[in-house]
Amino acid sequence: MKEPRVLVYVQHLLGIGHLRRAVRLADALVEAGATVCCVSGGLPVRDLAPRVGRFEQLPPARAQDATFKALVDADGQPVDSAWRRRRRDRLLDLHAAFAPDVTVTESFPFGRRLLRFELEPMVRRVAHDPRQRMVASVRDILEGYDRPTVRAARAIHEIGAWYDLVLVHGDPAWCDLGATFTGASCVAERIRYTGYVTDRPPAGGVGRPPGVRPGSVLVSTGGGAVGIELATAAIAAARSAWNAYDWHILVGDNLAKEEFDELRRRAGGHAIVERNRPDFLQLLDVAGVSVSQAGYNTVAEVLAAGVPAVLVPYVAAGQAEQTFRAALLAERRRAVMLPGAELELDVEGRALLQAVEQAQSLPAAGGADVALDGAATAAAAVVALASC
User: Fold this and answer.
1) pLDDT tens track of the chain, all 388 residues?
2) Which among 159, 195, 223 is positioned nearest to 12, based on CA atoms?
């Protein structure tokens, strides 16, 4: 059988979680024997691209804000119809030149409605070619699909009309897609659960990463620009008279330099404040407690590491996905959930310190009770589909 060709499309709009998941899938596809082209439409991210295979950057864009109602270019300017045409044509040209057997769209048709101008032409092209296959790649918890709506009905129709397979990156024993997508039963024959997509710490443990004290409280604010509130609260806790912990705070590259410098100034000698590090999994492996938002990738890594966790879900613009995930882990006693509203009022850091203490009392747990081989399982399913 010839080596299958797979194109993976991804667009991150605010944070970088979607890109990280797509890159992991691309790497796993190469390991499974596929020739891969990963096409990204978001802002470039340092040190985040497939290890092997082709990587193509479209003219970059992001969401204007957390409402996800408008698209802006790399300079923060609203995109116009001419920009959309150029980017659509660029994507279609890349797709035609690469000639994939399978095309994977990350989030679409469940999300990325702002990118429909380029995604729908590409997907329709594949649907009209009997030699090609379409795959949707989606996390286990969806936003805004918990009740029947026109939007949900459209997603159901498009899956039935255009897609051969829906890869749900989760473990149904933990969270079934139907919990947040009422139309799951309508497309059940196309759904394949993969387990959570995550990297794992090296087998046999790791040495101490440089500049880190084992047992520290590791605060990760994500890869986007929305974690400054959590970093500020962590600094308050580190400076508190009640603090008895070492604090290590990581912030994303998208946080403005002025804000980053101010965080470091305020932390003084009470906490280490750094940009995100490539050895995050090693840091997590030696941490005493993890404090983070409740995004998909970070939570999957916390589950894999088995480290006690405090989760502060991101709730801007009425988003409920992270709250749902944090509540799920809190119910299973795998994390302590600290609502952001409590954090905002916590000027002395006492609520965060109490949450850290509660997390340390949680039962010890590894990742044995949850499927964490999502990238390899997804890649195997895509390669098998290519041979059909």
Assistant:
1) 689 999 999 999 988 889 999 999 999 999 999 999 999 999 998 777 788 789 999 999 999 988 889 999 999 999 999 999 999 999 999 999 999 999 999 999 999 999 999 999 999 999 999 999 999 999 999 987 777 788 889 999 999 999 999 999 999 999 999 999 988 999 999 999 999 999 765 554 555 677 778 899 999 987 655 578 899 999 999 999 899 999 999 998 778 899 999 999 999 999 999 998 888 889 998 999 999 999 999 899 999 889 999 999 988 767 889 999 999 999 999 999 998 777 777 778 899 999 999 999 998 776 668 999 999 999 999 999 998 8
2) 223
Residue 203: CB atoms within 10 A of its CB come to 6
Of 171, 223, 172, 218, which Cα lies nearest the Cα of 367? 171
Q: What is the rounded CA–CA span in Å between residue 279 and residue 201?
A: 9
Q: Which residues contact 89 (CB under 8 A, 6 or more apart)?
A: none
End-to-end CA distance of the chain: 11
**Cα dist from 150 to 111, 144, 155, 273, 330, whole Å:** 13, 11, 9, 45, 32
For strands 102-106 and 71-73, give the pairing. unpaired
